[in-house]
Amino acid sequence: MIPHRKSKTIHVRDLKMGGAAPISVQSMAATQTRNVEATVRQVHLLEDAGADLVRIAVDSRSDVEALAQVRGRTKTLLSVDLQENYRLAELVAPHVDKLRYNPGHLHHHEKNRSEKKKVAYLVGISREHGLAMRIGVNAGSIAPRWRERYPDDEVSAVVGSALEHCELIDELGFADYVVSIKDSDPRIVVAANKRFADARPDVPLHLGVTEAGMPPDGVIKTRIAFEQLLALGIGDTIRVSLTVPFDDKGEEVVIGRSIIKDIDAGRFRSVPPNFFNGLNIIACPSCSRVENERFVDLAQEVKQMTSYATEHNVTIAIMGCRVNGPGETDDADLGLWCGPTHVNLKRGEETVGTYTYDAVLPRLKSELDRIIAGEKAPGG
Prior knowledge:
With 380 residues, the chain is of the alpha/beta class. The chain has helices spanning 36-48, 61-71, 89-92, 115-129, 144-149, 154-171, 186-199, 217-230, 250-264, 294-305, 325-328, 360-372, and strands spanning 10-12, 15-17, 24-28, 53-57, 78-81, 98-101, 132-138, 177-182, 205-207, 237-239, 280-283, 315-319, 334-338, 342-347, 350-356.
């Protein structure tokens, strides 16, 4: 049931992606990279679960030093997530197999240097070290000028950004790259990836629903996107993003392979007509950017505490870090983004306050009750 894919075949070392190659399954370490022991254990856990490649985030020189130690203790293919600091590329390149950068984060450093020059730098580093690349466009962190160009059309903004960066890399004569276009809403993931594939069927696509949340809803959201895209021959590598405890991260890989197998065998799951109605809890899958593992427990507590509101059309977003948290909670009715000791509570784009992990739930419930009662947000 998965037709032949039109994309070209690229290489991450010996791993083929795209074209006639098997659809590969990835995951990401949900540990502090500088915690070498925990990161190595997580990489081995994901490898044992069948991951073809594991992504690790790097945002500082201490992370780079830790990454070098991790590299020495595993032969697993590693992709590095450069986060907001693209300039670390030359330091991490000797220790990884693939570089992932987000076009929406390139503006954070060296603001007088053009995006074109920054991409040329990344391509040069990748070429020198024999690395593959991923252009990772995330709807929660769209480059400012693309958001300004399409303020009310998220699909056009993310697809436009991705196509622009493909052109930049193509002009440099670099071929081993893939694109990912992600959102927490599987309907946007489907629409954006279809549009991109129509424009650039040659470019391999990495599929995923970011911040899908906790099982079973997170699995359902992911399956919705994968069934619709893979059945059209769109998608060459996947990642299932779930908010689960450390020792359960291997579920992402197992579930991903199960979904691929089901689609290829023609086993599709029906989605209840009202699945997108009612309470919608978005939660990031946790990664090395998370500064307090209490975040995963908090997500579970939010789900339990809000069970009384399941019939109300309210979106609650729970983000585990300060990198993606502020922006990716803007579109939610209520948003929580977590720091080392405190949780920032938002209502729409407005900050309600900052609370300890133990104190945030009662205030969240209070705000939820106000929304249900139809009260306006502060300043609304």
